[in-house]
Amino acid sequence: MSELHKFMFEGLPVRGMLVRLDDAWQEMLRRRQESGGYPAAVTSLLGEMVAATSLMQSNIKFNGAVVMQIQGDGPVKLMVAEVQPDLSVRATAKVQGEVADDVLLSHMVNVNRQGRCAITLDPKDRMPGQQPYQGVVPLVDGRGRSLEKLSDVIEHYMLQSEQLDTRLVLEADDRVAAGLLIQRIPLQGEANLSGESAVRREEDQLGQNEDYNRIATLAASLQREELLKLDVETILRRLFWEEDVRRFEPLTGGRGPRFACTCSRERVSGMLRSLGEQEVASILTEQGQVEVSCDFCGTQYRFDPVDAAQVFLQAAAQPQGPSRLQ
């Protein structure tokens, strides 16, 4: 069963989360089998994206979708993981060409260093004129060297966008997608932690808090097999047995991470309207019907000439809001 655990280190400016997706992740992969599935390296990277996006959604408590996109210039053209406020998750990838099982991130999506990772916060109930917030980071470090781990890319994003020290450990295979997040809590505004001394002020700077650095180092020692195969209790005990860890009630079942797709016939109708009546008419003339398959869940939507006519009649009667992901 997929689960997400939150915890804090008593008296220290450090918090953490650990997510494990098994049934939810397996369901996402199962729905891709009819179209051939993904190469092993793509499966691993997409699973890491799912785990990371789940952690980010739970960490910021955002009333809207958190969407992570990687656009590449290699055989993997696009990867998307989307997590809703209720932790329902979906993901997809577009692959063109061969991808070896042991290929690195740069060879999949950053061959000519044109790859980008975008994190979008899309509000659930947008106000008029409100646009989603998006942050974009390249898949290279400050010296222009290709980053080979998704965790490094996201840590770089967190430093740029949130100015917070963050350590991520991410792993995935065809059974489990899992991630561990450790983050420094700013001392300013935390009455039980902050002080007036110069030492305290210095500890609130990036990379300067010894407690965070110690715990982040312990987290980084977590091995791939441990994260994928051990239960949460065992992982936390092995890593932080000398720390005073306060655990919160885990999020599982209907409250935890699970697969769900937000596609619908109504949303596909909106996409057809955006194509335009003339373009849809040409598809109907050529094929007799319009067929649209959801990239996330594989659901097929079919529109015959009568269905298509109804789509545009509805468009004339009712103004359309801003388009979103299918």
Kindly describe this structure.
The protein is α+β, with helices and mostly antiparallel strands and 326 residues long. The protein contains eleven helices and 14 strands. The strands form three sheets. Strands 1, 2, 8, 9, 10 and 11 form a six-stranded antiparallel beta sheet that branches. A six-stranded mixed beta sheet has the order 7-6-3-4-5-12, with helices on one face. A two-stranded antiparallel sheet has the order 13-14. Helix 9 packs across helix 11. The longest helix is centred in the N-terminal third of the chain and has 21 residues. About 4% of the residues have low confidence.
- How many angstroms does the end-to-end distance come to? 27 Å
Q: Write the element-wise H/E pattern from the N-terminal end onward.
A: EEHHEEEHEEHEEHHHHEEEHHEEH
- Total discrete domains: 2
- CATH fold name of the largest domain: Hsp33 domain
Main β-sheet, in a few words? Answer: 6 strands, antiparallel
Rg estimate, integer Å: 22 Å
Overall pLDDT level: 86
Report the CATH architecture of the largest domain. 3-Layer(bab) Sandwich
Helix content: 25-40%
Percent strand: 25-35%
CATH superfamily of the largest domain: Hsp33 domain
State the total count of DSSP E strands: 14
Number of helices: 11
Name of the CATH first level of the largest domain: Alpha Beta
